[in-house]
Design brief:
alpha/beta; Rossmann fold; 9 helices; 42% helix; globular
């Protein structure tokens, strides 16, 4: 087991699974959550609850530049989440989001002498986001290491997994109790809307895995 890592933690399904994957591989875990003006602000409360309930130190970093830039349905409440955006990209694509998140997470880790970062990006079911691809992560890993003169490693446990396989990994690492309090819906509602691309992808994964989504079980209780 390795010593310490910083997990980029949104409070969503994928980052919650990665948080628990990290618990299996690292002795000490620090979670970093970004408040970037996201319309689904409920995820900030979910992230805080999961970290508090499961004794994981969390730091929330403010980042309002994405709201100022606008141009996407995740930071502009007046833009509907419809799935289609500029060119071949979804309207929920926030340009540079993962690049900035991981760079700031690395800066946070550097100050604490930590060299391992964990993120829930996925190339298989990556929703069309180019900053979730493996080549993006490897390039960023190199750039961060050079720019901070310190060797960083970006762990991507979900990179080549389907949503079904991601659900199975969540079971394996014991994340299901925490997943009951996670958030995925882009519309930021509870119970989830069930219609946005994020809700549909999550439902597809649990259906294909043949298990009930703990979040939906809680929503129906």
């Amino acid at each position: 087991m390795q010593e310490s890592c910083v997990v980029v933690f949104s409070g969503g399904q994928d980052s919650t699974t990665c948080l628990y994957w990290a618990k299996r591989h690292f002795k000490k875990i620090l979670a970093v959550t970004f408040d970037y003006g996201q319309r689904h602000r409920i995820e900030l409360d979910c992230a805080a609850k999961i970290c508090a309930d499961f004794d994981i130190p969390q730091t929330v970093l403010p980042l309002n530049s994405f709201t100022a830039l606008g141009g996407n349905s995740l930071t502009d409440p007046n833009q509907a989440v419809e799935g289609l955006g500029r060119g071949h990209l979804p309207d929920s694509f926030v340009p540079g989001r993962n690049l900035v998140f991981l760079t700031l997470a690395a800066a946070f880790a550097w100050q604490r002498n930590i060299s391992d970062l964990v993120t829930g990006v996925c190339q298989t079911d990556y929703s069309g986001y180019p900053d979730c691809r493996l080549n993006t992560m490897r390039s960023l890993e190199s750039s961060i290491s050079l720019g901070m003169d310190s060797l960083f490693h970006i762990h991507t446990p979900l990179m080549h997994l389907s949503k079904k396989q991601s659900v199975e990994l969540a079971q394996e690492v014991g994340a299901f109790d925490a997943l009951a309090f996670s958030h995925t819906c882009y519309n930021g509602v509870f119970p989830p809307c069930g219609k946005c691309p994020a809700c549909e992808l999550r439902a597809k994964g649990f259906a294909e895995a043949g298990v009930a989504d703990p979040l939906m079980t809680r929503a129906k209780a």
